[in-house]
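User: Sequence in, structure out. Go.
Assistant: Echoing your sequence, followed by the structure tokens.
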Amino acid sequence: MKFPFDEPKNVAVFTCVHVLENVEDICYVTHDEDDGAWQFLCGQMHEGAEVRIVSLREIFNLDSSVGSLSNMPLGCGAVRDDKFSPWRGFKK
């Protein structure tokens, strides 16, 4: 699949150790209104030590289904139950 995001592939995004270690699926995504940052998380509560900064390309390589969210407006997010479930959008 072609990289669908408008941001550069090497832009820094937030994720969690659970996603990076393939322990949990990406089930919570936000596109922050204040700074345009993306967050790709598992949906659990996290301690600061569990947060990681990686490239958008790394997230896309882990789960290309997040590409369907590439046009998500600032200040919005999406959740799903697991990687086989559809995304449900929300406004922050």
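User: And one key feature?
Assistant: The chain has two helices and six strands.
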